């Protein structure tokens, strides 16, 4: 091998080492990632001790690709009256007064080339804990699952093999609330269980 080839290999090795040195875990895997947040929000207190529903704050989870991060005004639905003297709540109050957003640090992040839709999973009856772990026990949120392609595919294939069904909707579907206000008859909710058919082909997640 020529001296030039050795030099190219050396540069490639050095680049790979520098790239990997910036990772706090395996490549493409942020398992164990548990960053500090600008406000010390405890899911253990809110979702665990007080039993708040996840979708009270993450309102997009059932109807959107993204679960969403609650606005600061949502926090003040309770904290305009509760623990207003807390230094952490004071940060939220100050942000609302300044009409500013709190810069939460993202914990779970899939690669840009991977498509994921929260709504399709939530409406299929997949519990938040399936992907996010026991969030209701976390003082600081941590990524507990690898969230790799193989991990997702394994869940899809097991669900398909078990022929699981989606829960029958127990709340009005889209358009039904409008029917209620207009005086039109409310459609009967579907009683037929929907067999889950999670895909495992490439184009479902790589669009």
From TrEMBL:
Keywords carried by this UniProt record: Heme, Iron, Metal-binding, Signal
Domain of life: Bacteria
SUPFAM superfamilies referenced in this protein's UniProt entry, alphabetically: Multiheme cytochromes (SSF48695)
Annotated spans, Disordered: 164-207
GO molecular function: electron transfer activity; heme binding; metal ion binding
InterPro entries xrefs: Cyt_c7-like, Cyt_c_III, Multihaem_cyt_sf
Signal peptide: 1-16
Cofactor entry: heme c
Binding-site list for heme c 1: 43, 46, 57-58, 75, 108, 128, 131-132
Residues where heme c 3 binds: 54
Cofactor: binding details: Binds 4 heme c groups covalently per monomer.
Keyword Methyltransferase recorded: no
Domain named Cytochrome c7-like: residues: 39-86, 115-206
Keyword Methyltransferase tagged: no
Official protein name in the record: Putative cytochrome c
